[in-house]
Specification:
signal; thiamine pyrophosphate binding; alpha+beta; D-Maltodextrin-Binding Protein, domain 2; 2 domains; 13 helices; thiamine binding; TAT_signal; ten-stranded mixed β-sheet; two-stranded parallel sheet; Spermidine/putrescine ABC transporter substrate-binding protein; 361 residues
């Protein structure tokens, strides 16, 4: 998925809000008063509206702040961020971003992040203890889940097992992410076949045979590619995320999300502040995180992006709580992957994947 950039400053925003009388009422938190420009990375699609609104409100209340927004995916943006810091660690591509645990652990290996602590963002203390990050490297306030996304025109009943990906009756009708281990079923397949994050071979052997047998239609690298494959009926089932699939479904596409009986993948998401940012930029970044972690903003984000809050001061509305995919039982049964081991082993898995899976498609 391609990235898009959005430049936001006070003049830009007030031009659209002056007639509504909003300029004098919007809140401001900025601690730094010098002119400062911050680049913030957000995800595309249903994940965009709330962070854009928060940025607009912040800029309207803080005339010295300019926010450039990059909208994209972790898969595309993280390598660019890493490359920018390789060139100049004091001039990163962005200062604040929304990242998953996979990118977070890879970033830890190269000293990418700065702490987000209760001292600079008090609301971090409300994140559930199981999801607080070691040394406060990240503020993970919500969680998506990865299971089976399927074409409802093809299936009379929802698929209920990771093993359906390898059902010979679906030969040539299965697709998956290329090299995105938490989201393409590889680790889940390892776990249910005697493997682990330390021993991926049981799953890699299954995927290699599936490629040789023509089971796998294709590998995709973006959500738009996945959506097109499912809606067209070329592919009828794939590993993917609830928070991505439900907006497609609610937009009228013949797709839905199902929880595998072996457990869906828990996929925490949240903010990272980037090492190399200036003190003035850090002040703005911490303000933006604080604003984003206010209970109503967390709830707005979770409802818009179809994810689960991980804050002890945010309760799910009844309509969200009724979804079996995010019931307490389903969340308790979710596969909690070791993302640090995935990050460490990922390069070797990529070599195996390219040689044994991609080469045989």
């Amino acid at each position: 998925m391609s990235q898009s950039k959005f430049h936001l400053n006070r003049r830009h925003f007030l031009a659209g809000t002056a007639g509504l009388g909003l300029a004098s009422t919007l809140p401001g938190l900025a601690r730094a008063q010098e002119n400062v420009s911050v680049t913030q990375f957000i995800w595309t699609g249903a994940q965009e509206p709330v962070p854009r609104r928060i940025a607009e409100e912040y800029v309207a209340a803080n005339p010295h702040v300019t926010i450039d927004m990059i909208a994209g995916t972790n898969g595309a943006t993280f390598p660019q961020l890493q490359a920018s810091r390789d060139i100049d660690p004091e001039d990163p591509l962005l200062n604040l971003g929304f990242f998953n645990m996979d990118a977070t652990e890879r970033g830890k290996l190269v000293d990418m992040w700065l702490p987000i602590t209760p001292d600079n963002v008090p609301a971090v203390a409300n994140i559930l203890p199981d999801y607080r990050q070691e040394n406060d490297l990240g503020a993970f306030f919500c969680m998506d889940v990865c299971g089976l996304v399927y074409n409802t025109d093809y299936f009379d009943e929802a698929p209920d097992s990771w093993e359906i990906l390898f059902d010979p009756a679906l030969r040539g009708k299965v697709a998956m992410f290329d090299g995105f281990w938490p989201g393409n079923g590889l680790v889940s397949t390892a776990l249910i076949n005697g493997g682990s994050e330390d021993d991926i071979e049981p799953a890699m052997a299954i995927y290699e045979q599936a490629a040789r047998d023509g089971q796998i239609h294709s590998l995709f690298t973006s959500n738009s590619q996945a959506q097109q494959l499912l809606v067209s009926g070329e592919v009828v089932v794939m590993p993917h995320f609830r928070g991505v699939a439900l907006p497609w479904r609610n937009g009228g596409a013949p797709v839905d999300y199902a929880v595998p009986k072996e457990g869906q993948v828990a996929f925490p998401e949240g903010f990272q502040v980037v090492n190399g940012s200036t003190e003035a930029q850090l002040d703005v970044c911490y303000d933006l995180v604080s604003k984003s972690l206010e209970p109503q903003n967390v709830l707005d984000y979770c409802q818009t992006a179809y994810v689960v809050p991980l804050m002890d001061n945010v309760d799910l509305p009844e309509d969200m709580a009724a979804d079996p995919a995010i019931s307490p039982e389903a969340i308790a049964n979710a596969q909690k992957l070791d993302y640090a081991k995935i990050a460490a082993n990922g390069p070797e898995w990529s070599r195996m994947w390219n040689r044994r899976v991609k080469a045989n498609l």
